[in-house]
Every structure is written in structure tokens, then in C-alpha cells.
Amino acid sequence: MNPINIAVLVSGQGRGTNLQAILDACANGRINGKVAVVIGVKDDAPAMQRARDQRIESVSVSPKDFSEDDYNEVLLSILRDFKIDLICLAGYMRKLGQKLIDTYRDRIMNVHPALIPSFAGHGMYGHHVHEAAIERGVKVSGATVQFVDEDYDTGPIIIQKIVPVLFDDTPDVLAARVLPEEHRAYVEAIQLFAQGRLRVEGRKVRILE
Amino acid sequence: MNPINIAVLVSGQGRGTNLQAILDACANGRINGKVAVVIGVKDDAPAMQRARDQRIESVSVSPKDFSEDDYNEVLLSILRDFKIDLICLAGYMRKLGQKLIDTYRDRIMNVHPALIPSFAGHGMYGHHVHEAAIERGVKVSGATVQFVDEDYDTGPIIIQKIVPVLFDDTPDVLAARVLPEEHRAYVEAIQLFAQGRLRVEGRKVRILE
């Protein structure tokens, strides 16, 4: 199959480690595809800098400069221009517009640092997730890659990876244990997509042999 | 340490496989304790029959015959009579009275056939749990042993075990995969208790070496 064109949508804050994991996997062949464009909300975000350093096309679109509809139209036109097959959210936190979600149905992925449906949904991002897991006293957590739908963390689940939670874990320690599993799960999920092996059936994802 | 006295509280319907797993583990030394009494809600429940077959003391107390307070007093007097150290719920679904919970704080365990907090809480028992997991399309589920507190599935978590969920799983198939992990987790948790190795700190359970 042809290599896929990936757009990675990044946040203003994140360090861009998920972006880097995807870039590395494209470079070493674990993903049959390339990051055609990194789309951010502001130029000086660490992930945007990372893209520029590695000579990956990057575009920042500030949502503040547009109406919600126009903002989504700008995103759509960028995605079209770069002939994007798959959108990967990497720390990107805004809700995408309905038209964009419809256009790229089952072609937008996200990774969540917990075992959805645990510690997921609106407001559950970054360290809030690990704080909640530790506060609840769970003995296992993990990472979930899912297709993005209209709501927060309700889309079809592609892959889940497990990590143990230890009694003395702080949110930082747990985050550091989960992060490599996020990267592993994301790369695997993207490669399965690139191989045409993901089939969404209702709310479930079948992985074809 | 001395062997502990265990009371197993069973339901009217369940087959009593968790009870059997505990009985077996007491018999073969994986639990340093004995089931001193099985308490049920009706004599003809399968789990009660199982207890009688194996010459385990059993008492049925029908909640219908008592006020809520009196029912709990009857349970308390049975638990006292048998010098119970640990109460294990095995399919038992009624909420226990506040006084009983206070008296046996951190000495009442339950096993839930999912990874709490996923697919847990009021109404989530038996096959409802596995139906919900399959409906959500999760890739992993498991079993959780927790101490019982005032609410449903909100107590301190002792052990969690993982099982994969496969695309074509029915609730029955998933239940059959989770059940041995419920037994394993329950036996391990009870033995840790018998060894004095469980310490509840806030909402978390520390397992001592």
C-alpha cells in the first residue's frame, strides 16, 4: 500500500513527545507514512519548534483569529492541501467542528493516558488523569488510542496498553510510566491504519489479520 | 499468624464459584484461614447447597423477615458468634448497614468483574458489566478486589487483574475469561489479609512486603 499522509495536531503547551514518537516511527519504517504537516495553535509551541527543527512542514492557526466555523474551514483546507489520510491529535485539546469530524470520520485518532472509560471525558487531560487514577487508588492504568468522535473520549477504541500503578506513585512518576506506552500504542495504531487493518463496526474496532 | 475466620455472604442466584474458589484455597493452604460460615438470603440458593454439601456451616437470613436494622443486627450477631475476621461478599448484592460496615471497616471484601472504576457502580453486576464493556468496545477488562465501603464499588482497591477483550466476544465468553481472574485475585487478596499485609491508607491499599 502507499505510504499515508499524516497531519499531527498539537497543543500550545505539550512537549511534543507523541509527535516525536510518530516522526521517529515514520523515519524508521514502523509506520508506513509520513508526517505531511504539523498543525498548531501558536508558532512558539514546543511541538511546533520540534517540527521546524526537523524540517517538517508546520502551520499554526490561532483559533482566536477566526470564528469557530472559519477556524474549522481553515483546518479543512490545510488538510486537503496536504492530501491528509489520517489526523493524529497530540495534545490538541479543542473540540473539532462537526464538518471536520464528518469529513474525516474514523480517520482522526487520539491517545489518552488511561484505560478509557476510566479517568476520561471532559476535563480529564494531562496530569489530571494521573492525579485521578492515584486518588482512586487503582492498581493498573494504561494508554488508550481511539478514533475521535463528537464527544470527549467516547470514540471507538483501537488499542489499549497496561501499566501497573504502584502505591508510592506520584502523578509525575505514573505519567512517566504511561508515556512510553502512549507512544507504543499510537505508533501501532497508526501503522494498523496505514496497513488498512482497522475496521470500525458500530462502536468497536476490528483489527484485521 | 493464626488462621483467619472467614464469613462468605452469598446471593440467592449465583452458582457459588467464588465461594468454591475460597473453599479450595483454604483447603490447599493458599489461604491461611477457614470459611467459618456461609451466610445467604435463602436456603435453596446454589451457593448454600454447595456449603451444605461440603459440611460448611451455613445460615440463611431472609431480609424480608426483618426490618433493615434488625436484619443487620442478625448478621452482626452471626459474625460475632463465629468470631469472623474477614467478610467476603460473593455475589451478595444488598447494601450492608452502616453499623456493620463500621464494625468491619477494612475487613469486608468484594470482587467486581471489571477494572474499577470502569463498568462499576449501582446496577453494574453480573452480565451487565460484561455487556457494558463489550458495548463500549474496550480492549482490556479484568477483575478488581476491593474493600467494601458505604457506596457501590467505591472502596479501597486491593488487587486488579487484566484480561484481553476480543472483538467477537459475547458477554458469556468475556465472563468466562474474567471468572478465573476473579478467583485468583480474590484468593490472593484474602491471603494478603490473612498474612496481615494489607494496610489501608486513605483510599489506597498498601501491600506490605
The CATH class designation of chain A is Alpha Beta
**Major sheet of chain A: order of its strands?**
3-2-1-4-5-6-7
Oligomer classification: homodimer
| Mean pLDDT over the residues of chain A | 95
Shape of chain A: globular
Strand content of chain A: 15-25%
**Rg from alpha-carbon coordinates of chain A:** 16 Å
Would you mind describing this structure in some detail?
- The structure is a homodimer of 209-residue chains.
- With 209 residues, chain A is α/β, with parallel strands linked by helices.
- Chain A has a single domain (4-198), classed as Rossmann fold (3-Layer(aba) Sandwich).
- Chain A has helices at 17-27, 46-53, 68-81, 98-103, 127-136, 171-194, and strands spanning 4-10, 33-40, 58-60, 86-90, 108-112, 140-147, 157-164, 198-201, 204-207.
- A 7-stranded mixed β-sheet of chain A has the order 3-2-1-4-5-6-7, sandwiched between helices. A two-stranded antiparallel ribbon of chain A has the order 8-9.
- The radius of gyration of chain A is 16 Å and the shape is globular.
- The relative contact order of chain A is 0.15.
- Chains A and B meet through helix 5, strand 7 and strand 9 of A and helix 5, strand 7 and strand 9 of B.
